[in-house]
Amino acid sequence: MGRKWNNIKEKKASKDANTSRVYAKFGRELYVAAKQGDPDPETNQTLRMVIERAKTYSVPKTIIDRAIEKAKGGSEEVYDELRYEGFGPNGSMLIVDALTNNVNRTVAEVRAVFKKNGGNLGVSGSVSFMFDATAVFGIDGKSADDVLELLMEADIDVRDVMEEEESVIVYAEPDQFHSVQEAFKQAGISEFSVAELTMLPQSEISLPEDGQVQFEKLLDALEDLEDVQQVYHNVELS
């Protein structure tokens, strides 16, 4: 799974370089999570998960608190959660998750970006069957043996635990996100380099240089769309 971890790091690096855009996207996601359930992260697991993710992207507490307070304040903004699936150059596959208050606008923008960059939208299910929903945690300062031991003590059986460069990466079932997080916190681990629910490709492809350039333009253009929250793909980024 090493290459998949590299792709997660590339995505984080890209987002870290565009902080204002990242803050806006997390603000929307936090608002929706707080609005759909209890605005208290102690009782709203979805909200707690988004807050954990936001922390790994260094989103300031003021941004997090403002989004939650907006939900508490009775804002009438309503967002639809949408997922698009499509194909890029050279057999690449992409999943695009969006939050929008205008479905027609969002689908038109996503379709236009695919078309402009050598891709096309597919129907629901045309791509997602090649991806697995996965909870991913990154922990610094521990060995894989240490992490495995504490997970075993908590009676949690995860998919995989790997050492990647200076981090230990844990891959788990998506419904294990909160139990894994709690096991780490009980062991005194409260800071994560990654804490995500993501879609990992079952296999990855390498693109020729010209195809990679075109794919990265497509990826960047999708992530630049205001309504797009996450983009997952099956391309090995160099």
TrEMBL record:
InterPro entries: Integrase-like_N (IPR017856), TACO1_YebC-like_2nd/3rd_dom (IPR048300), TACO1_YebC_N (IPR049083), Transcrip_reg_TACO1-like (IPR002876), Transcrip_reg_TACO1-like_dom3 (IPR026564), Transcrip_reg_TACO1_YeeN (IPR026562), YebC-like (IPR029072)
Family annotation (Gene3D superfamilies): 1.10.10.200, 3.30.70.980
Residues covered by the TACO1/YebC-like second and third domain: 79-235
Main location: cytoplasm
Sorted UniProt keywords: Cytoplasm, DNA-binding, Transcription, Transcription regulation
Domain TACO1/YebC-like N-terminal: 3-74
Domain of life: Bacteria
Location of this chain's protein in the cell: Cytoplasm
GO molecular function ontology, one term from the record: DNA binding
Pfam families: TACO1_YebC_N, Transcrip_reg
HAMAP family cross-referenced by the UniProt entry: Transcrip_reg_TACO1 (MF_00693), Transcrip_reg_TACO1_YeeN (MF_00918)
Family: Belongs to the TACO1 family. YeeN subfamily.
Name of the protein in its database record: Probable transcriptional regulatory protein ACFQPF_02865
Source organism of this protein record: Fictibacillus iocasae
